């Protein structure tokens, strides 16, 4: 099993700075030997690309023909603690896109939490092959009436949602029917952490994520 804690030190990891209209962004590439897709994943509003799910995908997916690009939005590169408005996040993602598409492969647009929202909002205009939405924030905690379902339902491309069973931003049972697939990580919170009393370990929970994404990306060609 790949040690996801060592993924940032992997021999095939390279870093690229990209200028965007929202400021410099940064891409950490984890390249497959014979890639057929690029999976671009960005972080949420409260964390970075060291999130357990993004690290795990970078460790596992290249062996399955998928180059993983972990993207740091300009506000994170600048050292700011608070994410900007959605339109600024979208601006940064648009500016990063040419670098993601440069290898000439289909690009799956993805991210966790706020990054998933960006991927959904911009997928059609950018020509994404599909969207991977990790911990999609369906609504603010305790505010189900503030639904963001329209963003998810409007992605316009094949979409996979991977959601923790105990995510306060929307558990799987709260999601509306729609043209997307949904995989539940049992007992997972918004960061896919599972309590010690759960019947699955943290390692097994992360494997649910990577196994689902491996299978799904395999169906994309």
Produce the secondary structure layout.
Elements: E1 13-20, E2 23-30, E3 37-42, H1 52-60, E4 66-72, H2 74-77, H3 86-101, E5 107-112, H4 114-126, E6 130-134, H5 149-153, E7 159-164, E8 181-185, H6 202-219
Parallel strand pairs: 3-4, 3-5, 5-6, 6-7, 7-8
Antiparallel strand pairs: 1-2, 2-4
Low-confidence stretches: 1-11
Order of helices and strands: EEEHEHHEHEHEEH
Largest sheet: 8 strands, mixed
Distance between the termini: 25 Å
Q: Helix/strand-derived class?
A: alpha/beta
The DSSP helix count reads: 6
Beta strand count: 8
Specify the helix fraction band.
25-40%
Fold and architecture overview:
29% of the residues lie in helices and 23% in strands. Helix 3 (86-101) crosses helix 4. The two termini are 25 Å apart. An eight-stranded mixed β-sheet has the order 1-2-4-3-5-6-7-8, sandwiched between helices. The radius of gyration is 16 Å and the shape is globular. The model is unreliable at 1-11 (pLDDT under 50). The chain is an alpha/beta fold and 221 residues long. It has helices at residues 52-60, 74-77, 86-101, 114-126, 149-153, 202-219, and strands spanning 13-20, 23-30, 37-42, 66-72, 107-112, 130-134, 159-164, 181-185. Strand 1 (13-20) and strand 2 form a beta hairpin. The chain contains six helices and eight strands; from the N terminus they run βββαβααβαβαββα. Residues 38-216 form the KANL3/Tex30 alpha/beta hydrolase-like domain. Residues 1-21 have a biased composition (Low complexity). Residues 1-22 are annotated as: Disordered. InterPro entries: AB_hydrolase_fold, KANL3/Tex30_Abhydrolase, NSL3/Tex30. Keywords: Hydrolase.
């Amino acid at each position: 099993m790949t040690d996801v804690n060592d993924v940032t030190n992997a021999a095939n990891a390279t870093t690229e700075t990209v200028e965007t209209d929202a400021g410099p962004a940064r891409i950490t590439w984890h390249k497959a030997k014979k890639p057929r897709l690029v999976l671009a994943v960005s972080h949420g509003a409260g964390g970075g690309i060291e999130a357990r799910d993004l690290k795990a995908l970078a460790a596992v997916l290249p062996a399955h023909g998928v180059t993983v690009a972990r993207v740091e939005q300009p506000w994170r590169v600048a050292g700011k603690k608070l994410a900007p408005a959605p339109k600024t996040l979208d601006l940064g993602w648009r500016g990063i896109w040419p670098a993601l598409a440069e290898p000439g492969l289909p690009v799956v647009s993805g991210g966790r939490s706020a990054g998933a929202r960006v991927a959904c909002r911009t997928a059609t205009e950018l020509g994404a092959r599909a969207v991977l939405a990790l911990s999609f924030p369906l609504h603010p905690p305790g505010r189900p009436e503030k639904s963001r379902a329209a963003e998810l339902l409007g992605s316009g491309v094949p979409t996979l949602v991977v959601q923790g069973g105990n995510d306060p931003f929307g558990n799987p049972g709260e999601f509306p029917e729609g043209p997307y697939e949904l995989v539940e990580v049992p007992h997972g919170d918004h960061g896919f952490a599972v309590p010690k009393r759960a019947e699955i370990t943290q390692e097994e929970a992360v494997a649910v994520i990577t196994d689902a994404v491996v299978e799904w990306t395999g169906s994309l060609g």
